[in-house]
Specification:
Radius of gyration: 21 Å
Number of helices: 4
Order of helices and strands: HEEHHH
Strand order of the largest sheet: 1-2
Distance between the termini: 51 Å
Helix content: 25-40%
Number of strands: 2
Shape: flat
Strand content: 5-15%
Structural class: alpha+beta
């Protein structure tokens, strides 16, 4: 049995036993797609099946990967924690954020945890 088949059976089991509603799994080795499986449904009401093209919100799950990449780049000397974010992402400088450093963002000391004053709910949709 191939790893693709093994992983498909695992996802099928996880979604049919009630532990999970819908799952995807993709694994790459040396840049080559090795496993690409999905199982289950998007929600209990629609019954739409999960596929490899289904988009899932990931919210904060990317933070660990982003931090790891930043730390590796700093370790290699390709960026510095004291470097302004705007040097690598110029658009970030908008609205007075030009001096905020990569380190401040990583250590949650950038001072931007809240919405700026004067922003309304309708502005969030724009």
């Amino acid at each position: 049995m191939t790893i693709q088949e093994q992983m498909q059976l695992l996802l099928n089991r996880l979604t049919t036993t009630g532990g999970q509603r819908g799952l995807q799994l993709a694994a790459y080795v040396n840049g080559k797609l090795l496993v690409n499986v999905s199982a289950g449904s998007l929600d209990a009401i629609s019954g739409h099946r999960v596929s490899s093209a289904t988009l899932f919100p990931v919210f904060s799950t990317g933070k660990a990967m982003q931090a790891t990449v930043i730390h590796r780049l700093a370790q290699r000397g390709q960026l510095s924690y004291d470097q302004p974010i705007a040097q690598v992402w110029p658009e970030f400088a908008a609205h007075g954020k030009a001096a905020i450093t990569i380190g401040q963002a990583l250590y949650h000391t950038a001072g931007i945890p809240n919405m700026p004053t004067g922003i309304s709910t309708s502005d969030l949709h724009n």
